[in-house]
Predict the structure.
Amino acid sequence: MESSFSRGLSERFLDLLRAEAAQGGWWRDVLADQSLIIAIRRECLDVYWQGQSLFNVTLKGSGLIVTTHMKYLLDPGLGDRVRLVGGDFRIDELVRRAFLREYHSPSSLAKLKKSASYYGGDEKRGVHDIVLNNRNVIDVEIAFPGLYRLEDESEGDETRDPRIDVAALQADGDDIQLMFWEAKTYQNPALRTSDIRKSVVRQVRIYEDCLKRNRQAILRAIDRSPGT
């Protein structure tokens, strides 16, 4: 079954982003930070740092809904120790000071990035560097909602909501190809496992199946893109 595959923001969404930037704060900081990756979805966007979505922005009703993951709000600058008394940690002061409660430019963005960096891993950091250094990349973390199972697999081997690392444009003579890439470090055990269910080979086959099933939806999304 083909998924809905669409990318783009309405004029209403863009107007709200312009107004947000004019006010200063988080969105202006994001636009000024060239180390961040902004990925456009269907009437929403994600702001990525080393594979972690620092901000998810959607349009609802008359305004923007902006969220971040709660784990990124733990202040990475905490340095004091907590007393252990009779088996109890005395955390009253910790509760008051541990989390970022307000956004202050630009220090809060720096703290969010530092907190998120603990969750990225080498592969995510590598993909982030690849994207920043290749202007032909047009999307990251490309999700294909639904269950996918290869024809030669039994029920129970499904992969839910596969997510491909990178989509990029590549010259092919006078044509331009849309290419999808999956990144792995040499240390990843999936490169060497004899268990096909846990291997990169199976993962890539699943991705091939996703792209075949969604080929027409992807092509329609490209045709609707501005400037095509």
In short: The mean pLDDT is 90.
